[in-house]
Amino acid sequence: MVELQEVLRKYWGYDGFLPLQKEAMEAVLAGRDSVVVLPTGGGKSLCYQVPALCLPGMAIVVSPLIALMKDQVDGLRECGVPAAAANSSMSGAERWKVAQAIREGQVKVLYVSPERLVQERTIEFLRETRISFVAIDEAHCISEWGHDFRPEYRELGKLRSVLPGVGIHAYTATATQRVRSDIVRQLGLTAPQLLVGSFDRKNLTYKVLRRNALEDQIEAIIKQHADESGIIYCTKRADTESISESLKELGYSALPYHAGMSDLDRRRNQEAFIEDRASIIVATIAFGMGIDKPNVRYVIHAGMPKSLENYQQESGRAGRDGLEAECILIYSPAELYRWKKMIDDAEPQIRKAQQASLDAIYEYCTMPICRHQSLLRYFGQALDGVNCFACDVCLGDVELVPDALIVAQKILSSVVRQEQRYGIDYTAAVLVGSQDERIVRNRHDQLSTYGILADESTRTIKGWIDQLQGQGFLEKFGEFGVLQITAAGRQLLRGAATPRLVRPVQKAAPKRKSVADVSWEGVDRILFEKLRAVRTQLAKARNLPSYQIFGDVTLREMARRFPKTATELRKIRGVGDKKCADVGDPFLDCIREYCQSGPQNPTPTVGSTAETSRMSSGAILAAPYFRSGRSIEEVAAALGRAPSTVFNYLQEFLQHDVVVDWTPWVSDAVARQVLAVARRQPGERVKQIFEQLEGAATYEQIRIVLSCHRNRGEPDASRTVDASR
Ligand code: ADP
């Protein structure tokens, strides 16, 4: 155990294990087969990379995507791990070099594609090599029940007989029992240790939106993630092109990715995204498998995926580094219909399974219960506690309709009275009391349900109809989505079943600090940005994606703890021996220089002081910057907030800290004029002072000076100015 921990610290700079990592590593050391199911970001790679360094011989890692092997090998080498890859994209000479290094015992981790590993020649070669174990990454690819079946993975069934006595370890993020059993059977694993982690990704905030103006909805999300990496998944190739184009026109660096593009274009766009040259990739699901980019801060689904397995997998690409990230699913009922049409021709058994998957994800979209809970329940797990504080429902972005049963009965009654022959638009129009010509012609303006929800918007009513459908009270039929009442719907009409309905609220009222607030806690954002720039430069010079220099977690930790020596730097999470030696200096220089330039290091400590009860959370964050004399503009840039907001924080701060010195924000010359007017005409309001000064001071400056003046408790304005010198 000590050795595992030492290796983890020395090469990766991590102090502890993530959940189940230790058990997974121990299974490898014990030579026992294992199946490890951990969510994306759960730290599966280290489960085999660390023991590979503790055991004699070389570990083989089977990885499905050749294009990404280089990335993985480069990342390991940066940490000082002797790693190599063997695949068909390499030249004969390159492969020969790798073979030579293996013979000389210089490779501890070898990445191989499944098709190469099972070749007779490879097996012959490996028989002469001491193999410590075989790790199979993305092991669900072996199962037809998974979402990424790869026929070449089937061949791996041979491994047991061709490499007898070598432990085989399978790693996947796919949680279903069926896939798990399939992996064990296909690989012929012997009494494997099964380790299944929690699938709750606490750092992800899940949200669901009903589609209306798609591009506006996307832009509204992206605006909140300026310069951060994000993936937008589309169900159609054409959408990836059109959305990336319109984002480009809006000034975002967005690139498309889909299977219809040439290999070269795809690779180019993928690399630009991975290396942070483009912040947004707009892709079909062809993008993403094996992408280890840790700093994806949001994943938007611009269309509904066909199952929750797919959704979990794709949205899971956000926040692999454990920092906060957002996953937003924008759905529309029309997509459900489209997916259903696509499975129409499948064999009955498969169709049934696919239909169930579609119903489950549609229920996720329309059932307003905690999203973390819904996802976990689907994968057979339970949430700790009742509120995740990380989804639209729990954060109060939507509010429960108190008289949902009555509202639902009104909607269903209308459907009955319309003889169950109309779709969602028509039904909503009747309920809202529209003068639509069709409604009048059909005399549906005479129905008792006509206009019965006139106080609601059509959009809200349509949302409720979706929700009733998602909860099984209504069904849609045919191309036009004709609404019909189900057996459960009839019960609802009798009052024997209760639906849950929600409506969006304009302003969410967070009930506690969001994941983002927590993970930025105490981080000096100005320094963080400077460190980011250092990282970008180093990455460029070394031709590596920037996260392979250091992840955001590590940079935030530096901008929190201000390490000034190599020993202090080495204590930061994510800084191993080799990286500290290779790239530590430029980061230390940056921190030292930054500390010298400021009068005092801001060290924000949100939530840990008595300030919490007296200042707003924004003001608490800003206070250390104000104390170190930073300007409103600097603080606005550091916190990513508008200057006007930061001015409000400053006012709170001035009062809280009883600040008497205005000079960081207002010059004495200006202050003298303000106080002169205030002294001449006591009781003057800010507006009058402003007018009398005829532009010599802004409203903000006047307020700051008056606050400081009040804090001195000196009513005589002229004396105050002199005293401040
Ligand atoms: P997975 O393959 O399960 O999606 P990764 O192996 O890519 O996850 O790990 C996700 C992130 O967590 C990576 O940035 C990795 O460096 C980090 N990580 C892994 N193990 C630890 C640990 N013990 N302590 C801190 N961070 C870790």
Number of helices: 35
Low-confidence stretches: 508-512, 599-613, 716-725
CATH homologous superfamily identity of the largest domain? P-loop containing nucleotide triphosphate hydrolases
How many domains make up the 3D coordinates? 5
How do the strands and helices of this protein lay out in sequence?
Blueprint: H1 2-12, H2 21-29, E1 34-37, H3 44-54, E2 58-62, H4 66-78, E3 83-86, H5 92-103, E4 109-112, H6 114-117, H7 120-127, E5 131-136, H8 151-154, H9 159-162, E6 167-172, H10 177-187, E7 193-196, E8 204-210, H11 214-223, E9 229-233, H12 237-249, E10 254-257, H13 263-274, E11 280-283, E12 296-301, H14 308-315, E13 325-331, H15 333-343, H16 348-366, H17 371-378, E14 398-400, H18 404-417, H19 424-432, H20 437-441, H21 458-470, E15 474-477, E16 482-485, H22 487-493, E17 502-504, H23 515-519, H24 525-542, H25 552-561, H26 566-570, H27 577-597, H28 611-614, H29 617-627, H30 632-639, H31 643-656, H32 668-680, H33 686-693, H34 699-712, H35 717-724
Parallel strand pairs: 1-6, 1-7, 2-4, 2-5, 3-4, 5-6, 8-13, 9-11, 9-12, 10-11, 12-13
Antiparallel strand pairs: 14-17, 15-16
Helix pairs in contact: 1-3, 2-3, 15-16, 16-21, 18-19, 19-21, 24-25, 24-27, 29-31, 30-31, 31-34, 32-33, 32-34, 32-35
Adenosine-5'-diphosphate binds at residues 14, 17-18, 21, 38, 40-46, 292, 294, 320-321, 551.
